[in-house]
Amino acid sequence: MQRPATLEQRHKSKDDDNQSPPWYAVAGKCAMGAVAHPLEYVRILIQLGHEPLEPKPTRRIFGKPALMLPSMFTYMGYIRRVDGFLGLYRGFSASLCCNLTQNIVILQLTAVMPPVPTFEEDQELNEEDVKIFHFIQRTSQQMVSRAVATLLSQPFYVISCRMMAQFIGGEFKYSSLYGSLREIIKDEGYSGLWNGLMPRLAGEVIRIWLAGSVAFFINNYIVDDASVRSYISGTTNFLASSLTYPFQLVGTVMSVSNAPIQAGGPPHLARYDGWTQCWKHLSQHGQLKRGSSLFWRYYQGPTRISPDGTAFKIPVDMSLLRKTN
Fold this sequence. Notes:
By secondary structure, the protein is mainly α.
């Protein structure tokens, strides 16, 4: 009589059936990152609060006057006019190393972790407590692999953000990977390579557990149709990423704040003592979603409404600034 296949044998069989080596997935993700780098570059600059293009008067859905900032594609055009096409790939080398490190670490850790039944395999079970235990195991493994990947890739993330931030002041202090590592260690010590790590780690952990818990609850207790279940995970991941976006924003800001470049301090960026102070400051000014949208970007600064119902920015009175100095 033939014994039923063990969990390890079932997973090995699935791996054998998959003819594409897992490294292909890593290469594919890095290729997609290369294509999307100009957009990510623009997002980083927006997250840092750099808006070189003036907003234009518009109206919101219900007719309220507002100011609309240019889309990310218009912003890309501005960078290309200033720095040329290759300028859109400022910081790409560090960004590529960051993506490679993350994906390789996740791949290697996933390979050495003990196999856990998938959600589909758990549907054959009747014990609810076993299903919940397996869910906790799967999510914990994902959390650990993501956390370690974020920790080890953080130096490259800091370097890439600072390389891109140099566009604001037209500087070239961080021009190569080795040179950037040397400059950061010289100016801030080894801890400078992990600036902004805590909010990114916190955001990853919250996102993984939030998306996983909601998807597990819906798929296990509400949805019976397998074809619908396939969309639930993607939807919950998208919503969880949106809710935890402020952690990503604060992580980017903290990776550049206090850096010895123009973008690292006033008037471009405030100097923060910690990431919670940064969060509080951005929240007070309604800036925790800064950079989250590609197209519909509304100006959040002080505005006035003219008699004809048009919104416009309140200009800064430079004479007042001179008096205070």
